Amino acid sequence: MAPSAAPAQVPVTVLTGYLGAGKTTLLNRILSEQHGKKYAVIVNEFGELGVDNDLVVNADEEVFEMNNGCICCTVRGDLIRIIEGLMKRKDKFDGILVETTGLADPGPVAQTFFTDDDVKARTRLDAIVTVVDAKHFLGQLEQGDEAEEQVAFADVILLNKTDLVSEDDLAKVEAKITSINRYARIHRTQKSKIELDAILDKGAFDLKRILEFEPDFLHHGHDHDHGDEVASLSFSSDRPVDPDKFQKWMGALLQLRGQDILRSKGILAIDGAPRRYVFQGVHMMMDADWGTPWKEGEKRSSKLVFIGRSLDAENLKRGFEDCLK
Prior knowledge:
Elements: E1 10-17, H1 23-32, E2 39-44, H2 52-55, E3 63-66, H3 73-87, E4 95-99, H4 107-115, H5 117-122, E5 123-133, H6 137-141, H7 146-153, E6 156-160, H8 167-180, E7 185-188, H9 210-213, E8 230-237, H10 243-257, E9 261-268, E10 275-282, E11 285-293, E12 302-309, H11 313-321
Parallel strand pairs: 1-4, 1-5, 2-3, 2-4, 5-6, 6-7
Antiparallel strand pairs: 8-12, 9-10, 9-12, 10-11
């Protein structure tokens, strides 16, 4: 199909966060605001009986429930089926909101938009928005991996319930969030109140627009971390990248370590190519495409970012350097 004939992609926003953080409050705010847009809502429930649906405001939007448990491989088919059904409707939606259960790993949700060709063609994952409970977040980190991974996957973070903690404690929470994922935008909120244009239709998951929303993306430093906590690493180089070597290395790396690499993304300078080469990965899935053109006289730098657990910084650095010309 010619690019001009391709249907417009509907933006999908994934709302995630730990139990009680304020996801449903945020969802209700989105549905209650007079923004003139129509959203389809997919609510993921854990267990046989749906609860969240009853908490969602009575709006014109239709709410679809997945009651098979956490969104993971077993219900990815449900998500695909619901989205494909929505795309067939005559009264198309301006956007789709997916609210995950508080115990969900957002990774498989994001992977859905890599794995199904039809979903990929008709929709685009716009952003993963994570709501964090400022009062309980540090304690939640000790209860399992979920709270940490929800932050790691986030493109935008609402640090919620800031009125319930002191400024010193808030600073500690923010520092911890940044140590996990320094590339997400953090907004301090109370009762999930935020201007919707800060979280909706941001293109935060679209790497073709990443420089517009993260102008300092190419200027973050490199950190070493060998612990088993989730952390972010970045590598950069002014030397051009060999695309064949990079594809082989990244493909093998994600197959081998994809469970530990929660998110990967980057902007690469390919020798002789007029455009940036941009890629985005979620666990073992990776998607890549040509991005915006390099400007005349612009310094061509490549930048790689990994967010994950037990990352071997030295090994990743050697692998990246082996891809350089």
